[in-house]
## 1
Amino acid sequence: MTINRARTPGWWGAAATTAAGASLTVVTSIWVANGGPQDLTGGGALSATGRLLGLWASDLLLIQVLLMARIPLVERAFGQDRLARWHRVTGFTSFWLLLTHIVLITLGYASTARTNPLAQLWSMIWNFPGMLLAASGTLALVMVVVTSIRAARRRLRYESWHLLHLYAYLGAFLALPHQLWSGSDFVGSPLATAYWWGLWGIAVAAVLTYRVVLPLLRNRRHRLVVDRVVPEAHGITSVYLDGHDLHRLPARAGQFFHWRFLDGPGWTRSNPFSLSAAPSDQLRITVKDSGDGSGRVATLKRGTRVLVEGPFGKLTGESYAGGPVVLLACGIGITPLLALLGELPYAPGEATLLYRVRDDAATAFRPELDRLAAERGVRVVYLTGSRGSSWLPADRSDDLFSLAPDVRAARVFICGPEEWAAQARTAVRAAGVPAARVHTELFSW
């Protein structure tokens, strides 16, 4: 049973973007109303600039929290891939603005008091209201930023990185008392204080609603359990899941959930896995053993309870109404694209799958792909071989037009590791496919 979902209204993205821009405009207006421009031309230029950067940093920190709050309107408008990229850029921008704010405010106060800047910083931390909490929050944010640098992130398991990343919430909330108790832009303005409390209240409510309450209600309703575990290829395992009222689960082919399997220690840590079949009265995910929590999937027992958070992702067919479709998969990236092949309303001969794999042992779902080729006319091209300098295997010299002749007129879906997906997207765009018809999902974090 395939389930049809309503299309995401086009204005959702514009509304969310406008709201984010408006929040930065409002905090800048608060700084202007509190004499910021006048202070720039007087003797308090350092402190005035520091105040403005602090307001921007705090506002961006709240936007960063909202980007990952799992708000359905935002998730469906942009997709989690794009939100994760914005979250990263916003986070680093906020962090550097915060550090510059600290430096400028310290130098400004030290200049006025004619004291050593380090002594002034120490005095501010111990004597200003809320500053000790703010300093603790800053240290938490430093830890999050350091572990988010790509070189450091590659050395961490996904579960460890995710756990450390949660300290960003602690850092954000520890900064609030300092802003309201000693921030000159809020202390003297009840309206500004009310606005700031309201903004924080929205952020807290969004996190609690969509990251705690909604998943609890959804899991209570659907009560997912493992039905069976099936090996698909070397190190690749599918899990079939049963539950209640799954036809009411708002999921589409191509989306993913965060999964927790209640089979013993470690169940509190979630992992993101895509649906590998179109959602119906049963769900299926397919997992590659990557050496972290994914390895335990192959040992799951029938009846194991499962908790989920989601669905997430915008690699869906909601904007596809028929015509040529080309899907480019690499490795375990086949999973959401296989689900799409089962759901999209293409005619026989309109769908082409280019499936990049290392060797035959790593090829999953061959019988299922053969069935789709026989029953729905899907053209499946296996790109097998060692990794080359492009999205193709090292020993292939084909171009995209020879592999998918109708790609220029097609809707294109790409899923795989980040570097490979970027190369594949470049090839697709170079073939003349408009950006609006290219949909990607990266298997990275």
Note: The chain is about 50% helix and 15% strand.
## 2
Amino acid sequence: MTLSRRISHLTGDGSDGWDLFYRARRMVAAGVPVVELTIGEHDIRTDPEILSAMDRAARGGHTGYAMVPGTGGLRDTIAARITERTGVATTRDNILITPGGQSALFSAHHAVCDEGDVALYCDPYYATYPGTLRAVGAVPRAIVTRPETGFQPTAADLGQIPQGARSLLINTPNNPSGVVYSKQTLEAVAACCRDHDLWLISDEVYDTQVWDGAHLSPRTLPGMAERTLVIGSMSKSHAMTGSRVGWIAGPEAAIARLIELATHTTYGVPGYIQDAAEFALNAGPALEDRVAAPFKRRRDLALKLLAGQDVVHPVPPSGAMYLMLDIRATGLSGTAFADALLTDRNIAVMPGESFGTAAAGHVRVAMTVDDDLFATALKTLLEFAKERSI
């Protein structure tokens, strides 16, 4: 018996980009002490007050089927949050609650792409993007950005749109690069979408982690509210990665169809988890700032260490919980550098090549261990790079 071509070719007959992560986890399982700077998992856990709210909701009986679109309270809270932060009038009818941001990405592309449509995304990219597009039957095509422009897509990058393109996926603040798209970049993105009649899918799950500049949702730009689906999540903003609660914000007609899709797939998100998410959002910016603070602090710490040497160069880390480091002066690829660093120093970072071709010769460092351990690991990485510089 054979499996479907769609499920058999999610990774395009290649690696899913997580080989080094899996190797590091095997080492840990074998008892080898590894400093893991690989995935975007907070080193703090979900706030106890959020867990208490979840417990109260569950013990209070909210354990049956929840409304498929999401609870009215959570949808209203998210809509109010978006309206306040962007100025775009948003109601519960513009919101669908999903089991995390990844589910939202999958559903959003189902909403806008038919079988064989070209779905665009920017390289470097979060590792699941191409597989998500293949999973809905779309044909993934990368818009390759460059280190010289800080991995921000330029008007020239966006100028060559292939025939059959239906959607464009962007991510700002960006994983893996830590770049926050400028207003100029987002205006070029918006112009591209309007000129080529594209849907824009805007992954904004890191919108509370901005260190330089400001986050701008492209849904606010002229002519974009009717063609933009925004992806949000509680995972990064509130350290609720395991709770699996996210959302899509978009035009009412699209959300109505997405609710039909959810009825036939996920059938909603547990009510007690949604109640906890509503509680967390209503706790206000202070909680979000507390969750984000360690990454800003470690970003600043890293920039001081990087300023003291001239072998490894950071892509300007303006947001998110990652550093993208240019290690081309070592003469190694990102893959070779990361493999050797893990083998020789027991430090795991992600090769830039895990996120496409644009970040070849780079590594991504997740700032997800305590400050002292992070500083020690980064110093070791810099010494390791200096020993191999050419």
Note: The chain has a mean pLDDT of 96.
## 3
Amino acid sequence: MSLEDGDVMDLVIRSRRAVLPGGEGPAAVAVRDGRIAGLHAYDAPLAAAEQVDLGGVALLPGLVDTHVHVNEPGRTHWEGFASATRAAAAGGVTTIVDMPLNSLPPTVNVDALAEKRRAAAGQCLVDVGFWGGAIPGNLKDLRPLHEAGVRGFKCFLSPSGVEEFPPLTPGELRAAMVEIASFDGLLVVHAEDPALLGDPAGPGYREFLDSRPGESERRAVERVAALAGETGVRAHILHVSSALCLQPLARAREEGVRITAETCPHYLTLMAEEIPQGATQFKCCPPIRSSANRDELWRGLADGVLSCVVSDHSPSTPDLKVPDFAAAWGGISSLQLGLTAVWTEASRRGHTLEEIVRWMAGNPAALAGLHGKGVIAVGADADLVAFDADAAHTVDVSSLHHKNPVTPYHGRTLTGVVRTTWLRGRVVNPAVGPAAEGPPGNLL
């Protein structure tokens, strides 16, 4: 896009490593009224109220994290919209989609969605969308929730960990799929077969891992894929931890089933062999598995069987992370660290920033129907990240913006540092402090 003589932009950001849809290279990104107005040569003479030259620091689109448990209202002491969106902005994430459980009430009807939106209003440093929930007894609420703007519907096939969000039986799952398919909605599934889950035989990580075998994920994925094929619903498998899921996912897609899947930073960067005794900050469901399994997940990403990498940020207060894997809360806090954690391992394996952007920005935005997000393109929102891909930092849990200081990444040295984050052309780095006009995040 060329600008007319005398046309003055609000902001021009130049980088020799801009990650655009056509690849990585030098560019100048012109911003006006919160949107990207033009893409130009790095040294193009452009007039703007503000000019930023990043030099060799990469310019990425803002990441889109479609798997975040904010927990407000009801469990705001675990996390909340203010703290979660600060952490997101600090980590280069400019859009999050909030999961429907762990808040009270859960987002399973229109009234609960309205309460969630009231809780979020005026607090958000980044943009926020919402998932609805599919639980026993709320079939009639799914279409109204869809019409009210949720991005899709989360369900469990096994117990969720909170009694107010019970799992669907096989019959209820099929009925939900039929209903959601009728308005071409999206069902996102926590896929573990409860028949294969057990109680850990002891307090250690090995006993916990044995109680949630990879076969439980594979069997659940096969069930979802078969029902999705029958009903025609769009289905998405959440937080794949077991490489046993890759073959049935690939086969279903080859057969024309509308099914996609994600994995998470902790499954790509951590491994069971290194989890210390009692270190329940590593506990999540499904669990972190072996190094060999991790290698297979990376291959699944490279092959496109897994399309998204999102955090599954599932925080809790420190007292719930007791040093007993059988009793501790299962969830990992990593919203602020996902980009650097994944880039650390991805770069070691020869992957590129262009792939990172596809997995952590473009594909999650497409999954949730967030048009104008996750891409540096004319007309898109000017959600941008200055990412120093070669810098290193050591994680100090006390410096994170998550509400509670619990993360398995504490003390790890990671590659890549987020220098600046812009939301619609406005700097939203928490270190800058709140602007006089208040947090700029929209409720999508």
Note: The chain has two domains: 8-59+381-390+413-432, 62-367.
